[in-house]
Amino acid sequence: MRKTFMGVRLRRLREERGMTQVALARALDLSASYLNQIEQNQRPLTVPVLLKINAVFGVDVQRFSDDDEARLIAGLREALAGRPGEGEAVSLAEIRELAANMPAVARTLLALHQGRREALERLDALAARYGDERGGPALSAAQPMAYEEVRDFFFARHNHIAELDEAAERLAAQWALEPGRAQEGLARRLAEAHGVRIAAQPRQSEGSPRQYDPATGVLRLADGLEPGQRAFQMATQLAFLEMGPELQRLADGAGLSGGQARALARIGLANYFAGALVLPYTEFLRAAEALRYDIDLLGHRFGVGFETVCHRLSTLQRPEARGVPFFFIRVDRAGNISKRQSATHFHFSKIGGTCPLWNVYEAFAQPGRIVPQLARMPDGRAYLWVARTVSRSAGGWGTPDKTFSVALGCDVRHAPQLVYSKGMDLADPEVPVPIGMGCKVCEREACPQRAFPPIGRTLDVDENHSRFTPYPVAR
């Protein structure tokens, strides 16, 4: 056993028993000076002393366990990490000292952290239930994360940035970009207008697929990118070079709270411009309508992937030429939502734990296959969703792939315009699968997949413990 200094824990045990140092030393058959040195962390707490404590007081030695300390350290690091603007950062050494010598204080801090997190989740859930993603005054007092601010900015614009869309369409025509072969025209524009040379860089598991060195004028694109991905990265770099002032103006005027949020907004706007440049609005909308929004056929025609097509379809909201108002979402196997865009009223859950009956999760069981679903929300609205997995290999053998489920949805009244509604009885109210935004805000009491009751409810377990039924808490 390594040297373990736990003087504060031993002193607390002594005080709980109402004993003096002399009395405790006598009970443990130790000298008073030796016990004093242990309590002052001048000597370690050894195994023989621990065994004496167990024999005399019947105290579980796990109270002095390194495992307990390790759990406290892990919890404290999570609770105290990533809290910018909330005081001086707490070092790992300080966390270790707290866990080792004042475990009760550490547990109290963890309980407070858990209470704060649950309170914020309840506020998020209540805000989602009443259709307000930003929440009321109590929730608004909590500063949202930078990427959430940016998402809200795009949501407020109905996921359509007219200034960038119109500029991208005009420039695509000027530069004679051909559908499916846009990278050739983009590379030509980079070279002729900006002196930028395209080079390859080894693709690694982490890091950006695009790196630009303004000093040398070299744009390095990761090996292994598909032609459509290469075109998108070139278009993104052109966004910064050609549209820099406009990107900054839009980011500065978005009402964001800080520099990090504005920087993320600028990147998001550049990506938006890139998509609009590779998939020009009028031409892409015309093709989408002619092909009944067939995502695979659109991908083949314009030389881009499934996710890129879905994302672009969710932006077609030009007032004089609107496409179907879509919702776009990307999740991983754990249910983490990494992308969500909505051109209309649909609100995605911001608190995790979205509905397991949603086809966005069924897609993982059928990789590479489009999975359609008619779904109905608790408010009675029905939607047509299509979902498919997309995978990205970041390296060679032994390197884990990134796999996501990408889903595109629309109100059922638009479903006849989509090829994916073929064979579905859109008029039968029994056909849609009942789903919700997550158990914490879903009111479907009889759902077979319910994990826990909604906010403000508790559980009624039957005598066989085979099911539970939510019921209102008495007030």
Automatic annotation (TrEMBL):
Keywords: DNA-binding, Transcription, Transcription regulation
Domain of life: Bacteria
Domain HTH cro/C1-type: 10-64
Pfam families, sorted: HTH_3 (PF01381), Peptidase_M78 (PF06114), ScfRs (PF09856)
A single cellular component GO annotation: cytosol
GO molecular function terms attached to this record: DNA binding; DNA-binding transcription factor activity
SMART domains per UniProt: HTH_XRE
Gene3D superfamilies according to UniProt: lambda repressor-like DNA-binding domains (1.10.260.40)
UniProt-listed PANTHER family: HTH-TYPE TRANSCRIPTIONAL REGULATOR, HTH-TYPE TRANSCRIPTIONAL REGULATOR SUTR
Family of this protein: Belongs to the short-chain fatty acyl-CoA assimilation regulator (ScfR) family.
Designated name of the protein: DUF2083 domain-containing protein
Classification lineage: Bacteria, Pseudomonadati, Pseudomonadota, Betaproteobacteria, Burkholderiales
